[in-house]
Amino acid sequence: MGIVSSSLSLSFVHADTIDFGTSFHNHHRGAPPTSFLPLFQPPKYSSRAYHSGLSRQQNQIIITAKNNPSSSSWNIPRGGQQQQPPSSSTLNRHSTALFDGSILSTTTATSPFLQYNIVVFLVNLVGMIISLIFPGMQYHLDLLGTGSFAIASWWCMLLLTNSSSVNATSLLLQRVQVSSLAVILWSTKLASFLFYRALQVQEDARLESTLSTKSGVVFFWFISFVWGVISSLPHSLGIASSLEGDNNNIIGLYSGTILYIVGLFMESIADYQKWSWKQSNPGKFCRSGLWSISQHPNFVGNICIWTGIAIMNVPSLRWQLVPIACLSPLILWKFFLGQAEGSITSGVELAVKKYGDDPGYSDYIETVPLLFPDLKRLFAKK
């Protein structure tokens, strides 16, 4: 009878196990409210039904393991249900891991942020070596100094585009491609123009004293490298972020692209207008076109370019890096303002010596804004 009683007791173990938690709770903690009873009373299963369900779960796990031999382990949570492995989209979102948006990640060897700035450094190093070997030569200054942006952007975009861990249709890759192409287009355009101008003019009087000594050459290319690093902060930090973000990223990408295009056209038109004016009016200062509403419209265009690139990438950055990325347009604005005022370079002094005898130059300096056009005055004239 003891054996029979034990057998009968064991036969009801599976049927009664589910009710154990509820009965224990009723006896020792008090019964739960009626409205919550469904949460505490899962459906009952007979012993045969329980074994049948468990067998199906075991067979499913075995079949899945055979079909996925690369899986090293399987986590089986309570209840016999198999935990699904992470989806490919989840893996792509997190396995970009080149940079997760934190400041410390910028020091890793695989970070595009670090690789971008290494390329900028190497290109400027080549420029410095050329300047030391050929003293006084200026043809390569802007070709390499400004061209380093395009070379570094192309290199990092190539690495990220060919990375198997990045989803080809993700917003992350689209943002990286748009930002990279924007920098490549601007850098190639400006470097080509400045190189052509150097071939025609042959030398820039503002750089003669600086490039006349070895220390001056080292200083010039060091500033060129620092300039490249600071100007590129929105882009170099943006391409290193694996955060895809939400709709704010799409809005930032479109609005930043629009501002970038405005700045690119403004800078390009300003350079073309001034170059054409000097060819047809040698010895006279330019005050036509965009130069009639700003003394330095090319500077304004450059500020708009990098502000647009910042707007493209800032929504994808962690909040700690946003102020760092915004340093680019702020420092550009401060530097161009100082250059326009003559407190940083000797451009204003040279211009006064060259055009000081022209009575229209004094009026131009007093009435036309240094950088940003006076929109109220501009529309009032119309």
Integer average pLDDT: 75
**Major β-sheet annotation:** none
Shape: globular
Q: How many strand elements?
A: 0
**Order of helices and strands, N to C?**
HHHHHHHHHHHHHHHHHH
Low-confidence stretches: 1-54, 70-83, 85-107
Helix content: 55-70%
Write down the Rg: 34 Å
How many helices?
Answer: 18
Describe the model:
- This protein has 382 residues and is mostly helical.
- The protein has 18 helices and no strands.
List the keywords.
18 helices; disordered N terminus; 382 residues; mainly alpha
What's the structural blueprint in terms of helices and strands?
Elements: H1 2-11, H2 13-28, H3 37-40, H4 47-67, H5 88-95, H6 112-133, H7 141-145, H8 147-161, H9 171-201, H10 214-231, H11 233-238, H12 247-280, H13 297-313, H14 322-325, H15 327-341, H16 347-355, H17 359-367, H18 375-381
Helix pairs in contact: 6-8, 6-10, 8-9, 9-12, 9-13, 12-13, 13-15
